[in-house]
Specification:
250 residues, disordered C terminus, 0% strand, 11 helices, mainly alpha
Length: 250
């Protein structure tokens, strides 16, 4: 499989650098909001507004749960991954992010409400798992060097998260993690043709393309010319023979 290099005119442009800064600010702003919620709601036990599976009172938790955490340890564990993954997602896949982010925000909550065990499910770890799986799989199925590099980096930094999709730890919403990871994989496959940067084209590629369309092998021209002459000779010889032999005229 040929791996394409992105055009430096695209990746090193002023607009690209502005997009990186904007993506970092948006991700940092979201993490800041996550920290403001428990600080401003200190003592209010906001985590009770999380997802309660198969209880109508728990439906609003689909919207609220990713913004709530069981404590500061839980919040700290999600903050840095959200900053790194959110920035990466917005920089590499800005168009797909408009679909992926709502899907990994709301989708796990819906799945948890329908299928998860009893309890109250809170936390932004669904976003983390959804973004990890999307970035990782997108790098596997694309020919973009940036996507491949991001995939390898995510696998190196967050590969151990795979254990979070298994029911091996008490008090961990593995259903949220599993649903988010599956959504991320599905979205990466569905949106694999989005956000492909223009690749570098070398001069010899254009020359080869022009040669295939406009040029022709001199040997093939000589061969074709030779075949045409010999065909004419054969035709002429047949006519002469026919004219000299009455049996062939019949």
């Amino acid at each position: 499989m040929e791996i394409h290099s992105p055009d430096p005119a695209f990746t090193d442009s002023g607009r690209a650098r502005d997009n990186v800064r904007l993506a970092a600010r948006l991700s940092l702003g979201f993490v800041a909001v996550l920290w403001l919620i428990p600080i401003l709601g200190w003592g209010l036990e906001l985590e009770r507004f999380g997802v309660r599976p198969r209880h109508w009172i728990g439906l609003p938790g689909i919207l609220a749960a990713p913004m709530l955490h069981a404590g500061f340890i839980h919040l700290i564990a999600n903050s840095l991954p959200l900053l790194v993954l959110g920035t990466t997602m917005l920089v590499l896949y800005p168009t797909a992010a408009l679909r992926v982010l709502p899907a990994v925000y709301l989708g796990p909550g819906v799945a948890v409400w329908l299928f998860a065990k009893e309890g109250v499910h809170v936390g932004a770890s669904g976003l983390v798992y959804g973004l990890v799986s999307y970035i990782f799989v997108a790098g596997l199925i694309r020919r973009d060097r940036r996507a491949i590099a991001a995939s390898m980096l995510v696998a190196f930094m967050y590969g151990t998260l795979i254990w979070g999709v298994l029911p091996i730890r008490v008090g961990v919403s593995w259903e949220t993690h599993l649903a988010a990871a599956l959504i991320g994989v599905l979205m990466a496959i569905m949106l694999r043709h989005r956000d492909n940067p223009p690749r570098v084209r070398y001069s010899w590629e254009d020359e080869n393309a022009d040669g295939e369309v406009e040029g022709q092998d001199p040997q093939s021209e000589d061969l074709g010319a030779g075949q045409g002459i010999s065909g004419k000779d054969r035709s002429g010889g047949a006519n002469d023979d026919g004219a000299g032999d009455p049996r062939q005229a019949n």
